[in-house]
Amino acid sequence: MKRIKLLVVDDSILFREVLARYIRQDEMIDVVGTAGDAYSARDMILKHEPDVMTLDVEMPRMDGIAFLKKLLPQYYIPTIIVSGSEEKRKAALLTGAVEVIAKPAARTTKDMAQFASELCASIKRAYTKRNPDAEPKKEIITPIRSAASVISNRKITPITAPAASGKKRRADALIALGASTGGTEALEQVVKAFPADSPPVLIVQHMPAGFTKLYADRLNRSCKMEVKEAEDGDRVRPGLIIIGAGEHHLRLCRDSRGWYVSSKTGDKVSGHCPSVDVLFTSVAENAGENAIGAILTGMGRDGADGLLKMRNAGAFTIGQDKESCVVYGMPMEAYNIGAVEVQAPLYNIADIIMDSLY
Q: Are 153 and 280 members of one domain?
């Protein structure tokens, strides 16, 4: 059986290290990392991709409840709050924690062993349940699942260029991708399949500030293409993937030299900054029929209107299907308004994009 990857977050180095030592005695749980504050936890999440997180509430720089409010809508991790404050534990449940557990009043060996045993049971429940009640039910068409499990159950079809037909790949194309909940893994599966000389790719993934740089760095290590977080004025070129920066809208622009991006702070659009709608609208206006757009797994409807504008401008548009989505919200909304030309499972999307370039 796959071991559950756990991240332990607590501002007390002694408590988290002692707790981790006890938890590691359970053969079903692998403590992949520990962190002392929300910012370190953010780094650990992208580095280790934990299945479950335990989280203290009272921490320096950003408390656990504020961290949950920023994290869960965009990067879902079943989270167990471990706190000595009853009031804080109640607030955490309303924020989206799957369970709350009181810290032991005493820290004797017996108390810690009993506490760790109870916590291990909670970790296993969180892993198997995935707690769909942590998200608005009306938006969730399929239960929240591990994106990794969705991907691992699918066959990845290798990309094959239609060389035998003698067709040449278009040199003027641009690819725009948008995603939210479950999107970090889904986007990685798609872009890892792109050849190094693929047309430029622009991506908006709903993530807080700071996460997007780490995510771009992670993709840069695993992809054939170069990947970077957006900086205002970046030139758009083949072989480059640009990830929209957290709390900055990513827009495609054009001047006499060609395409470049604008990356600027602004008000939320469709509930988000960066917004997929903002990116897709700018692509419709500046790339038109030269663009290919795909909307992947995510909660809500950000990107649906923008993808429709892309299709109306002559772009080729794709939506991820219900069965392969972690959350079938954004692709469903796009499909329902006629923005999606082709609906496909995640494992076929890279192939479809590449085939459309010939």
A: yes
